[in-house]
């Protein structure tokens, strides 16, 4: 709604500038930019975090699949390990240097998840 109001104010000010060349007003009250780049980056980050969450659950479930347990893995333990793996990967994803962007940043975080699960497997076996 705010974006629509800001765009309408921008159009009205442009019309006023075109009708009267002496009036030069700019719309500085609009917090949302006209281009869609900020929204695209947010959506990309959101998808990346969902991918990290799914891979954390898959890695946790895979770790407990390889243990020889007759009862099978406990859902609470798998969920707790998935949260721990996700937090580790999230920290890596956030604190990776800004030179790495997009897919490189995501692949680094996923590799950290996989390597941490492999390390845990060999430590627990």
Shape: elongated
Radius of gyration: 24 Å
- Report how far apart the termini are: 56 Å
Total count of strands: 0
Number of helices: 4
- Output the helix-strand order: HHHH
Helicity level: over 70%
Structural class: mainly alpha
Instruction: Please state roughly what percent of the residues sit in beta strands, choosing from under 5%, 5-15%, 15-25%, 25-35%, 35-45% or over 45%.
Output: under 5%
- Major sheet: size, sense and barrel closure? none
Whole-number mean pLDDT: 76
Low-confidence stretches: 20-27, 36-42
What is the structure about, briefly put?
By secondary structure, the protein is mostly helical. The protein has four helices and no strands. Helix 2 crosses helix 3.
Protein model, in words:
Helices cover 72% and strands 0% of the residues. The model is unreliable at 20-27 and 36-42 (pLDDT under 50). Helix 2 crosses helix 3 (75-95), helix 2 (37-65) runs parallel beside helix 4 and helix 3 packs across helix 4. It is built from 4 helices and no strands.
């Amino acid at each position: 709604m705010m974006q629509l109001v800001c765009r309408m104010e921008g159009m009205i000010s442009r019309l006023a500038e075109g009708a009267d060349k002496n009036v030069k007003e700019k719309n500085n009250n609009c917090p949302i930019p006209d281009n869609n780049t900020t929204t695209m980056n947010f959506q990309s980050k959101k998808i990346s975090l969902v991918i990290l969450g799914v891979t954390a659950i898959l890695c946790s479930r895979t770790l407990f699949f390889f243990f020889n347990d007759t009862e099978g893995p406990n859902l609470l333990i798998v969920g707790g390990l998935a949260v721990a793996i996700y937090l580790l990967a999230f920290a890596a994803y956030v604190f990776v240097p800004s030179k790495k962007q997009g897919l490189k940043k995501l692949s680094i975080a996923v590799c950290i998840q996989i390597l941490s699960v492999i390390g845990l497997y060999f430590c627990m076996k």
